[in-house]
Amino acid sequence: MITRPSLMSVVSSLFLLTVVASAAGQQRDNEELRKEESEDYYKKWLKEDVVYIITDDEKAVFQKLTTADERESFIEQFWQRRDPDPRTPHNEFREEHYRRIAYANEHFTSGDRGWVTDRGRIYIMHGPPDSIESRPSGGFYRREMSEGGGVTSTYPFERWRYRHIDGIGEDIVLEFVDTTFTDKYQLAVFPWEKDALTQFPGAGKTLAEQSGLTTRADRPGMMPGAGGHGGANPNLWYSRANDVPFARYETFAKVQAPPIVRYPDLKQIVKVNVGYSTIPFEVSESYFRLNEDQVLVPITLRIPNRELTFKPNGDYQTARIGLYGIVTSMTQKIALEFEDTMVTSFRNDQIQTGVQRTSIYQKVIPLDRRTRYRIDLVLKDINGEKIGVVQKALIPPAYGDKLAGSSLIISDYVQPLGAVPEGDTMFVIGDVKVRPNIHKIFSPNMPLGLYFQLYNAALDQSTLKPDLRVSYKLLKDGKLLREAVDENGEPFQFYSTRRVVLVKHLSLDGLEPGKYQIQLEVADKTNNQTVQAAEDFTIVEATKLALGNTSGKVTE
Q1: CA 369, chain centre distance (Å)
Q2: Under CATH, domain 271-397 is a member of which superfamily?
Q3: What is the pTM of this model?
Q4: How far apart are CA 404 and CA 117, in angstroms?
Q5: Which tens digit of pLDDT belongs to each residue from 333-387?
Q6: Which end of the chain, N or C, is less surrounded by CB atoms within 10 Å?
Q7: DSSP-derived secondary structure letter, 401
Q8: Rounded distance, CA 249 to CA 228, Å?
Q9: CB distance 295 to 366 below 8 Å
């Protein structure tokens, strides 16, 4: 027999399980929804936005891409290859393309959206014609001599004339015929397709048919092989070269093929992290909002000292690295260009230890948040012959009005300075010194430093400060090992509602070697919004870890 308290306990447990399962299910649903929305965006871009102008080769490449970054890089390069003037800040081709789509949807809709129709397709691909002859009601029509002459009655039709179309030719005439009187105009191959009396014997004859020189069956397109040459078919005696059947078939096919592109070589597609290197080095970037229009992007390099050439210099052994960097937009506009010389030195009695360490360098770059960039880095060992080259995409995130976060930096050294230092100092963001551990390898006796910026936090009206709950979760193989929670958002530095800086040190003492993940979650209690960030890292035995980093001294 189940007592009343026991029954209540069972009901409570079932309710709790239902709530937990519902929350977990909701989280999975949200993740799947976000993934579906992303997939829908790229599917729409491929099947609607550029369906008429993308080449088969480009389409095949795009369909093989798997990540959002790869697809975004492809899309940027796709438009760049068609930009008529890369020196201008705008891509005139892209702007004109979307204007044409809007125009087609406004003027050519007929059951289907305008961009789907034949007129919409030709307009989007080739732009407005140089002239349009429109007969929306059809009716009485006196044929031009190039069409055979004579009079007839037609379906509603439009005749578009282009003086020139790249890759097709001169004096291109296209006709669109509405045989159903429903505004559904279809691209025609032959002028006879607009003739409403074609199926009525004896009506609507051409001049040659009236004279008995030919019959209706001899009209090109009415039967296979008819009128293959203008001289043999009286209906084509006065036709232009573009009017002979095979020329019309060729034009019909060409005007529906993707327009020619500026650079046909598919190797122009941006490739991220591709380069050659005889100096292997690592590069990482982070993103922090500077203002409404800009982001700060610290670029950090890590170079193994064993790859460098050290030369005696008195009591020291010195390596010199020449560094050149250039940041360009996808339209080849230069956003920043810089040169530095890194100098790494060790005493003669410390050189054996020094070559086991690494040198690190950092350059902080302000970028427009609405533009995607590429950075090219070239390193040269001045004392030797080695060269290292890396190309990397820089894609600033979009920060809206909702709660958002910067990149999460995991560091082997993070320390507030108390004041913003003067000049251009490496590894300093605001008044905090942060040295990224970009190879993400720690030993158990090293602290795990974290640096994170939070944006758009709401103010608690009672304290006039953000009311935050910050949790730090340490996971291994997906299982939670440790969790630290700051219910009051400590320690954080409050600057304004636009920016909150979080600095944290976590102990790794007692952890076994292996791969781990740190998860950061910040909850804004005032507006019930959360933001998350995570980074993977590895713990190795102290004896297997490189002895540490050396900050390369920069000489101008």
Answers
A1: 13
A2: Immunoglobulins (2.60.40.10)
A3: 0.52
A4: 42
A5: 888 888 888 999 999 999 998 999 999 999 999 999 889 999 988 888 888 878 8
A6: N
A7: S
A8: 12
A9: yes
